[in-house]
């Protein structure tokens, strides 16, 4: 599968947003939890001071804990707030601890890690050392941290699930938007395809503003190509004209007088001029081929071929029966000039050899146009057919350019990615079968 | 038969003019399209050989204008433009035949013969036949039944024109203008001499004289 710009964009965006979003949310939650823990530690510090305030020196100088001065939560069992006070003589535990054991932090300050408390509570511990009347008093306070911890864990989990879901939804929306945004490109592509098939000559400028320059550029390119083609065709035509008149002069000079006076020179000139003539004709016909470009003029055999026949009747000064079958008025999406050249050469050839009749049969389907030009002449023996097509060999000196016409037609068929084959026709003459793929 | 050759290559014209004269045609040569446009009205040409790539005015334009003016003279296009679409375009503009360069001189002569015969409504034979005579244009001889009769160049030229126009009254002026180009010496006595020579060879009845009017070719031998 080819890579899609939209899909690649979506995947990379999805992954980066997922990773970044998860990292940021987890970091934010961690930071929030630390903040909250800090506040709780502040609270514990206050609590420790409160517990210390409940200590009172008795008459004997020993300290006693006045329970009524304590916060009520210290009296309710498993309330989540606990303390342990230790002096060298005594040790008090908050009533809320009930009979559960609690290991106070080993050192003053905030306990590292959470302490295990009663009823599976996890406690945040804090210890402070005081000097009361010369006695060292250690106050450890603790508070249940489980609810906070659970809340953050829930938040983290929610974030882990909801963020990818949100992103997936966003990705879908983005894909849809992209597809909608790229639809002008698809339209433009369809038009370019039609341009290539010759169904239209310019792209409509009816696209989004961003594509406008592209469409204009393509139109300009199309125009440029067409002009280039025209120019090279004209240049070739000029060259042909420039070469052919001198060739005609040489050919005329190559007359029977010359043959009498200097047979060798006559032979040499005749051969060379004929070769040059053939080369010029074939090169010109190749240069003229417009295959692959937009077919500006469609080929309409039933309209155009009778004109070719009319030309041939005059050129050969003879009348032949001619028929076209299998079209019913259909036109073909090939450049008219090229097709005239192709069929002109084939019919010219048929005209030279036919006894009395020539037929052109067309068979059209979805992908292929097959045309068979047949005559009732002598045909070409199978062994010679390949050479005729490849080299433009002349089979008969008097019938000028016999093979050349077939070779030119063959070149044209190949230029249209088609084939040209020589077969036997029903009446025993030559049948030239041309298969041309229709532009998709 | 008088031919107007419009061709801008001097080298080619230098070959074609003698070639055509050798085969019994009176030839006038022009190299510019604009000259040809006007010139064709000045003399009674029987055929035009027209190049397309002409200075001054393109051959096709010249032809188009002639046809628009209602001029029906046979035109043979002689050009290097050899694509089929150009040939068809040439015929569409009113050309009667189309020959591409380079060409064989015999081919040109054959096409001219065929075109002249067609334009005079003659059948498409190897020989031009009128009355009891058949003219062999390549050998410049005339056949009566199985007998071949030799002709001089001047006799051939004259007989061919007569045979293209059998039964029609042709004045001396008409004959002269179709048989000689502008460079030739036109003496009506010369015409009479040639008519008499033809009668001596072929019999008195072959050409009738209409006193004060001209001649009529009958094609009858005695």
Walk me through what this model shows.
The complex is a heterodimer of chains A (440) and B (222). Chain A is built from 9 helices and 15 strands. Chain A has helices spanning 5-53, 146-197, 212-253, 256-261, 263-288, 301-316, 336-353, 382-391, 402-415; strands at residues 55-57, 63-65, 81-86, 91-93, 109-110, 115-116, 122-132, 135-144, 298-299, 321-325, 332-335, 357-364, 368-375, 419-424, 430-437. In chain A, helix 1 runs antiparallel to helix 2 (146-197), helix 5 (263-288) runs parallel beside helix 9 and helix 7 runs antiparallel to helix 9. The longest helix of chain A has 52 residues, at 146-197. Chain A is rod-shaped and about 165 Å long. Chain B has helices at 10-22, 33-39, 59-68, 84-92, 105-119, 153-164, 172-179, 188-202; strands at residues 2-6, 26-30, 47-50, 75-79, 97-100, 128-130, 133-136, 141-144, 147-150, 169-170, 207-210, 214-217. The radius of gyration of chain B is 18 Å and the shape is globular. Classes of the chains: A alpha+beta (440), B alpha/beta (222). The interface between A and B is large, with 39 and 34 residues.
Short description:
The complex is a heterodimer of chains A (440) and B (222). Chain A is 53% helix and 18% strand.
CATH architecture of the largest domain in chain B: 3-Layer(aba) Sandwich
Strand order of the largest sheet of chain B: 2-1-3-4-5
Helix content, binned percent of chain A: 40-55%
CATH superfamily of the largest domain in chain B: Response regulator
Number of strands of chain A: 15
Q: For the report, how would you describe the main beta sheet of chain A?
A: 6 strands, antiparallel
Poorly predicted parts of chain B: none
Distance, first to last CA of chain B: 26 Å
CATH class of the largest domain in chain B: Alpha Beta
What assembly state would you assign to the polypeptide chains in this entry?
heterodimer
Residue stretches of chain A low in confidence (pLDDT < 50, at least 5 long) are 393-402
Strand coverage percent of chain B? 15-25%
- From the alpha carbons, calculate the radius of gyration of chain B and give it in angstroms: 18 Å
Give the overall form of chain A. Answer: rod-shaped
Q: Gyration radius of chain A, to the nearest Å? A: 51 Å
Tally of alpha and pi helices of chain B: 8
Helix/strand order of chain A, N-terminal first: HEEEEEEEEHHHHEHEEHEEHHEE
């Amino acid at each position: 599968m080819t890579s899609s710009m939209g899909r690649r964009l979506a995947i990379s965006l999805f992954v980066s947003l997922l990773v970044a979003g998860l990292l940021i949310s987890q970091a934010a939650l961690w930071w929030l939890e630390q903040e909250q823990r800090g506040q709780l530690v502040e609270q514990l510090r206050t609590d420790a001071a409160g517990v210390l305030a409940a200590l009172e020196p008795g008459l004997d100088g020993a300290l006693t804990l006045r329970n009524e001065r304590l916060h009520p939560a210290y009296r309710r069992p498993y309330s989540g707030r606990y303390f342990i006070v230790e002096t060298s003589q005594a040790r008090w535990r908050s009533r809320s601890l009930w009979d559960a054991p609690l290991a106070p932090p080993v050192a003053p300050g905030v306990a590292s890690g959470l302490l295990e408390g009663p009823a599976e509570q996890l406690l945040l511990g804090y210890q402070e050392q005081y000097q009361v009347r010369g006695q060292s008093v250690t106050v450890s306070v603790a508070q249940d941290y489980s609810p906070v911890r659970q809340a953050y864990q829930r938040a983290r989990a929610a974030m882990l699930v909801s963020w990818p879901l949100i992103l997936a939804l966003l990705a879908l929306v983005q894909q849809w938007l992209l597809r909608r945004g790229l639809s002008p490109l698809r339209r433009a592509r369809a038009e370019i395809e039609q341009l290539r098939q010759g169904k239209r000559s310019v792209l409509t400028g009816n696209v989004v503003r961003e594509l406008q320059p592209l469409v204009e550029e393509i139109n300009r390119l199309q125009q440029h190509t067409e002009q280039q083609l025209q120019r090279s065709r004209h240049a070739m035509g000029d060259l042909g004209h420039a070469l052919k008149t001198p060739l005609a002069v040489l050919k005329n000079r190559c007359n029977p007088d010359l043959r009498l006076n200097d047979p060798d020179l006559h032979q040499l000139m005749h051969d060379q001029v004929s070769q040059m003539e053939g080369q010029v004709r074939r090169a010109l016909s190749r240069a003229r081929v417009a295959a692959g470009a937009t077919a500006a003029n469609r080929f309409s055999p039933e309209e155009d071929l009778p004109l070719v026949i009319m030309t041939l009747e005059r050129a050969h000064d003879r009348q032949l029966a001619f028929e076209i079958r299998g079209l019913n008025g259909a036109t073909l999406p090939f450049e008219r000039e090229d097709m005239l050249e192709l069929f002109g050469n084939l019919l010219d050839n048929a005209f030279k050899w036919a006894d009395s009749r020539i037929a052109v049969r067309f068979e059209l389907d979805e992908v292929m146009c097959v045309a068979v030009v047949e005559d009732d002449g002598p045909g070409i023996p199978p062994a010679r057919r390949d050479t005729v097509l490849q080299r433009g060999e002349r089979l008969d000196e008097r019938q000028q350019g016999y093979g050349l016409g077939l070779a030119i037609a063959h070149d044209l068929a190949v230029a249209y990615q088609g084939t040209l084959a020589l077969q036997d026709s029903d009446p025993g003459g030559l049948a030239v079968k041309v298969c041309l793929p229709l532009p998709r | 038969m008088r031919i107007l050759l419009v061709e801008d290559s001097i080298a080619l014209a230098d070959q074609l003019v003698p070639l055509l004269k050798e085969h019994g045609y009176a030839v006038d040569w022009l190299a510019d399209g604009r000259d040809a446009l006007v010139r064709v009205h000045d003399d009674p040409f029987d055929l035009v050989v027209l190049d397309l790539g002409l200075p001054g005015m393109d051959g096709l334009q010249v032809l188009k204008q002639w046809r628009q003016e209602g001029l029906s003279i046979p035109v043979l296009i002689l050009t290097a433009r050899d694509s089929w679409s150009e040939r068809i375009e040439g015929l569409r503009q009113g050309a009667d035949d189309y020959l591409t360069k380079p060409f064989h001189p015999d081919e040109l002569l054959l096409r001219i013969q065929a075109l002249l015969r067609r334009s005079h409504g003659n059948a498409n034979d190897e020989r031009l036949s009128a009355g009891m005579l058949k003219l062999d244009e390549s050998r410049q001889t005339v056949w009566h039944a199985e007998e071949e009769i030799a002709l001089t160049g001047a006799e051939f030229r004259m007989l061919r024109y007569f045979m293209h126009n059998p039964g029609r009254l042709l004045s001396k002026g008409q004959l002269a203008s179709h048989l000689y180009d502008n460079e030739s010496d036109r003496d009506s006595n010369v015409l009479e001499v040639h008519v008499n020579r033809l009668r001596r060879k072929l019999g008195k009845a072959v050409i009738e004289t209409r006193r004060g009017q001209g001649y009529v070719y009958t094609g009858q031998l005695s």
